[in-house]
Amino acid sequence: MSDAVEEIVNLGDRSYSVIVGHGVLSRTKTMIPSSARRVAIVTQEGIPPAYIPTFGVLAVSTHVIGEGESHKTLTTIERLCREFSQAGLNRGDVIVAVGGGMVTDVAGFAAASYHRGIPVVHVATSLLAMIDAAVGGKTGVNIAEGKNLVGAYWQPHGVVCEMDALDTLPAREMRCGLGEMAKYHFIVREDLSSLSMVDRIARCVRIKADIVSADEREGGIRALLNYGHTLAHALEIATDFSIAHGEAVAIGLLYAAHLAHRMGRIDSARVDQHYEVVHGVYGLRHALPNGITPDQLIIDMGRDKKAIDSITFVLDSATGLEVVSGVSADMIRLALDDLVLRLG
User: Fold this and answer.
1) Is 14 a catalytic residue?
2) Which of 60, 144, 310, 323 is most exposed by smallest CB count within 10 Å?
């Protein structure tokens, strides 16, 4: 692959490009709908101005949202929509989200809601956004009862993954993306570590694009993208989001392996492979946060958006990942004990 890679999310007349590479920010202009006369940029204070694209003669307004999960709320959505109205945006205009996963989630949901849906283009500046949040059209915000429980499916008109921006990321933000990247090793049962970072990101995008193309609204295989996330979301809620998403996913991947092993779905060697990827390839060595009881985690896992009649996990098997419901509380506790013992 060259240093700039284009992947396509194939959704018929709603298909769009995802551009991955260094110095690709200028490609954003090619993704703006021809009907647009106004651009609303949604971003955060910490995003370097160098990664805010320019749009020539189009009228541009900038809308800054707060940092942290406490700002990923319906209150923020209302504020953005009111600001869009004050800026004169109509259905033919466009929202451009510039930032990480929180920005693309919030801006995407605002785009889906304002005028019952206006175009959105994502400029992903974090690894997490590039390989996960900006691609696939899932948008959402949190409520007190759970993470991402309110949202919409709203596909972007295009996604630009400007890899130069990764050089500006704090180490913890990179770890967040690496936690999500680790899951792709298990979704496709491939070792991605031999690829360059550009190619590895592009491969993750391709994997997600293929899954989204086959199952846009998570009626089947798209749920596999939530591998490791059932415990991860519960950890985020239980710690009031003091643990970062990717850190929680890294723990969640290891927990899912222990749970699958307890249920006789995989052998101990496959559990070891999870540790080799999470700890070895990506260096994500995180302990289970102190002071969290199994009962609390079970309650929070029951509120996960995958749960319908019971706590639901994505679990590994000899033939690949599968959605598994009806896991008993006793089995969940035993696997938690295994995880704590292994992590030390």
Assistant:
1) no
2) 144
- Active-site choice (180, 183, 236, 247): 180
Residues 154 and 229 in one domain: no
pLDDT reading at 307 higher than 80 = no
Domains of the chain: total: 2
| Lowest-pLDDT choice from 197-201, 274-278, 296-300 | 296-300
| Residue 46: CATH number of its domain | 3.40.50.1970
Do both 154 and 279 map to the same domain?
no
Identify whether 270 is a catalytic site residue: no
Q: Is 222 in the active site? A: yes
72 is catalytic: no
Domain edge (last residue) among 169, 189, 207: 169
Residue 215, domain member (yes or no): no
Half-sphere exposure of 107 (CA within 13 A, CB side): 32
Cα dihedral 95, 96, 98, 100 sign? positive
Question: Catalytic: which of 208, 258, 261, 274?
Answer: 208
pTM for the structure as a whole: 0.92
Q: Are residues 225 and 83 in the same domain?
A: no
* Catalytic, out of 148, 206, 226, 305: 226
Chain Cα centroid distance, residue 25 = 21
Instruction: Judge whether 22 counts as a catalytic residue.
Output: no
Question: Which amino acid does the sequence have at 117?
Answer: G
- Name the active-site residue from 122, 175, 183, 245: 245
Indicate if 13 and 135 belong to the same structural domain.
yes
The residue segments making up the domain with residue 242 are 220-343
Same domain, yes or no: 249 and 153: no
Task: Show the tokens assigned to 120.
Answer: 């959105």
Same domain, 240 and 146: no
* Residues 135-179 pLDDT 10s: 999 999 999 888 899 999 999 999 999 999 999 999 999 999 999
Cβ density class 244-283: b for 16+ within 10 Å, e for less: bbbbbbbbbbbbbbbbbbbbebbeeebbebbeebbbeebe
